[in-house]
């Protein structure tokens, strides 16, 4: 990946930005030794397997193998290109990137997203001004005041109003000389059918700016104040807005979510604002879509491994359907999810206004986990008769089948069997039938289509073969090189990677030697220069360890390795004699070929040394 940014600028950014601070914005980290650990944001991590080294300025997940430096983290988290990640980090630490260092294509890609953020911010100012000062905004302000929203909350979230008419925002951007094709790309205006002009997308609606977790405005939600349809209208998908990866209020809620280790999830903008204004600042709202894996990973990063999510709904029917849909996604995300259904006729806003926040929070504290909630609803609906129990069982097979965690599924089956006073085996058979009798021992498919599973503990060694004792020794040498660079001249002098049998480790060893021969840089800079993802993952897994090395211990390890490669010719001769004595001609031929190869390599090594 050509970066077109001077290496000294990259190094300056890397040394100026604290990777722990950057990662902590989306992952709760706890210090253990010299490193920090948390739940991986790149896969469904049940136990903290994600490690960050502030000293080495790198991260690595021992579960999915993802690793790299602070640039890699932002690229994988948000889908940024390298120049985009560099630009964001440079702005964060006050480093200037020369414009000429970017190709036209790269500059265009960065400028596109920057431009969309800027246009959205301008639109938010326009809508907010229209609400506070426009004649047509008075009715909208009256509506908000009637719903109990203070001026502080309206200002805090920059609530606005899109005036009635086809070209109010259009005229605003025209006067600002903003290219209207870019305004259309932001989803703020729509091209007319004739293709010769545009009109405003949002008209006569209260406007709610939607931000990403970093606080940049990525889109808008518009709500009518009457019975017009559609009731809500959101920004369409754009290069910066994806509703499946966005949650309303996440930027404002993330700090309290971390503090409380709890997040309240509601369905609308007004519900969010009502809870936030009442003091429940650990609240987010979905944006007209079901919860996705990306939503859950984002929330898990905020609430931590022991956190919980409480889904708040305003009717039994909505709650039941939402609970059933969300079981699998919360299970994969390893989040303790609970559900709170408010009394009929109430949403969070109306409930708090009538009963107060304390009453609401008491209900939230008593919220049941999703399976228990669904069981209660089914029993309430079908009763305890024999026929009723059968129908409850049928209703619960789908939710139970959605759970992948074997232990959790087993416990829920047992609870349901006790609740219905039936044999647990009957539930087990029904679940197996629903799942097609699939095996509970699974592999997972990553986003790029590769099969992945739990960490194999091999430091990235996954070439499909059993790792030999010699390859394990080679891995220790590479880890030593990465963690204690002072030993590298000794490694280079003895040409140890030449004798490696594992090709990946040999390539990595030579890459390290070349890097430190040309540079006195940092391990994060080395990793940043490795283009092969498999090689980089291996390197980060070996570099992340916080073991303390001493020069004397390193020399002992080197000498042990050398003693193992010193007399292979004699060993081969002995093996040939043993195979011949047994009459194993095939083995003899194989060992003779191996001995000839060793002799040739030995002669080649001598020639290199003479030079």
Explain this structure to me?
With 611 residues, the protein is α+β, with helices and mostly antiparallel strands. It folds into 5 domains: 7-102, Zinc finger, CHC2-typedomain (DNA Primase, Chain A), CATH 3.90.580; 104-240, Alpha-Beta Complex (DNA primase DNAg catalytic core, N-terminal domain), CATH 3.90.980.10; 242-366, Dna Topoisomerase Vi A Subunit, Chain: A, domain 2 (3-Layer(aba) Sandwich); 372-434, Pheromone ER-1 (Up-down Bundle), CATH 1.20.50; 469-566. It is built from 27 helices and 18 strands. The strands form 5 sheets. It has a 5-stranded antiparallel sheet with strand order 1-2-3-4-5. A hairpin with an 8-residue loop joins strand 10 and strand 11. Helix 3 (70-78) packs across helix 4 and helix 20 packs parallel to helix 22 (503-518). The protein is globular, with a radius of gyration of 30 Å. The two termini are 35 Å apart. Residues 437-466 have low confidence and may be disordered.
Q: Can you give keywords for this protein?
A:
five-stranded mixed β-sheet, 27 helices, single chain, Dna Topoisomerase Vi A Subunit, Chain: A, domain 2, 611 residues, globular, five-stranded antiparallel β-sheet, DNA Primase, Chain A, alpha+beta, 5 domains, DNA primase DNAg catalytic core, N-terminal domain
**What is the CATH architecture descriptor of the largest domain?**
Alpha-Beta Complex
| CATH homologous superfamily placement of the largest domain | DNA primase, catalytic core, N-terminal domain
Instruction: Give the class from helix and strand content and strand pairing.
Output: alpha+beta
Mean pLDDT: 83
Please outline the major beta sheet: 5 strands, antiparallel
> What number of domains?
5
